[in-house]
Amino acid sequence: MPVLKNIGVLYTCKDEGKQSDIYPIKQAAMAWTDNKIEWVGHETEIPEKFFNEDVYDAGGNMVIPGLIDCHTHLAFGGWRGDEFEMKALGKPYIEIARMGGGILSTMKATREADADELIEKCLEHLNEIKKLGITTIECKSGYGLNVEDELKLLHVYRKLDTIQPLDIISTFLGAHTYPPEFKNDKKGYSDLICNELIPHIAEHELARFCDIFVEETAFTVDEARIILNRGNEFGLAPKLHADQLSDGKGAELAAETGAVSADHLEYISDEGIKKMKEAGVVAVTLPLATFYLRQQPAPARKMIEMGLDVAVSTDFNPGSAPSYHLPYAMSMACIIQYMSPAEVLKGATIKAAKALQLEKSTGSLEKGKNADFSIIQSPSVNQWLYNFKPNACVATWKDGRQIWSVE
Ligand code: NIG
Ligand code: FE
Asked: Which tens digit of pLDDT belongs to each residue from 361-391?
């Protein structure tokens, strides 16, 4: 039974208590069998049965649950670096989309890329992502926008799940925007999603969630309701891109449809927060997208005070959030969303696990959970998220096995 000793501080991040309660244990140790945690506590109290076992040394560093990036658009063709100059000089995201850029330009590049190319590109990203201490990542489709290419993306994720160590959780986002073929036949596209894609994806277990972009320029609340309910009928739990660019009543729809999470939420109303709280919807905040689009930040303080679980994620995609660096998003959440580092740590671990319905198996360091953890070279979570470094993670462990270390 392996034991990790000499941990300067271990943050268990169990879900109970307030979002700021991360339950630190100083001079800690942790033991696990195969892939499950057996024991976590003070080094002086290690039970005898763990003596003389495989011993690993954390070097006095800090140990956190493996980070969970609960909202990404990992697989896409091309990039949109050519739009960056226009963006930097102030052209709005929506205007760039109207000029033929934005999601539709990525759709074109994604349709042109074959599955092997996409897998290769994702593997390059995942290889860096695991070095940041991330052990689970949610990945959305949404750049295919037709049957063939949406399924291609979901098959890419299925394959990735089997050929590299991180857990990949797939989400179907066929309702990201209307593809050009259906510009004048919105009902036709909704029918395609509801009658062809959702049943096929459910039957072949290609995704766990059904997501939709609710916004004036994408899907209306009424259009979204039909698609989310249909997904639900087939066992694909709802998720929403909600209230990102305006208060489009996405949060209210998330509550009404029993969504697992509503994500973005820069323009959420107080009523939306209340309804999400009543319905137990996790609020996923995406500070990099807020920052890159120069939006007002999601009201994380208010959401926490009103009792919501607030997760923090990257939204990695080629348009609004061109970085998979979750610790960067976490530091940003402290600054622009007025969250404490402890709240943010829970936001990228146990709250992110809840946003993926994985809280029973991962997201905290407790007996019975998966042995997913990361060793961070920093004396505390405060110092880690303050003194931002390219990478402070020195080792990542997934299911009880080291999947990366700096040496
Ligand atoms: O989460 N809001 C919609 N979708 C993405 C952006 C996609 C893109 O620009 O390619 C987001 O921000
Ligand atoms: Fe997104």
From this structure: 999 999 999 999 999 999 999 999 999 999 9
CB of 318 closer than 8 Å to CB of 106: yes
According to DSSP H, which parts of 138-292 are helical? 147-163, 186-191, 198-203, 221-233, 250-256, 270-279, 287-292
Taking the centre of ligand 2 as the mean of its atom positions, its distance from the CA of residue 322, in whole angstroms, is 11
CA of 264 to the centre of ligand 1 (A): 10
Tokens of 60: 């006095």
Question: What is the per-residue pLDDT across 75-120, written as a single tens digit (0 to 9) for each?
Answer: 999 999 999 999 999 999 888 988 888 999 999 999 999 999 999 9
| Residue nearest atom 12 of ligand 1, based on CA coordinates | 320
Q: CA-based Rg of the chain, rounded to a whole angstrom?
A: 21
- 110 and 149 in contact (C-beta within 8 Å)? yes
Provide the total of helices (H) and of strands (E) in the chain, helices listed first. Answer: 16, 16
Strand partners, 7: 28
Cα three-residue angle 131-107-117, rounded to 5 degrees: 50
Percent of the chain with pLDDT over 90: 95
- Tens digits of residue pLDDT in 197-215: 999 999 999 999 999 999 9
The residue ranges of DSSP E strands in 231-354, in sequence order, are: 237-242, 261-264, 282-285, 310-312
Q: What are phi and psi of 338, to 5 degrees?
A: 55, 40
Whether the model pTM is above 0.85: yes
User: Ligand 1: does its nearest atom lie under 6 Å from the Cβ of 319?
Assistant: yes
The answer to whether the CB of 288 is under 6 A from ligand 1 is no
Measured distance CA(390)–CA(150) in Å, rounded: 34
Residue type present at position 71: H
Q: What is each CA distance from 393 to 10, 19, 73, 130, 366, in whole angstroms? A: 14, 23, 23, 10, 21
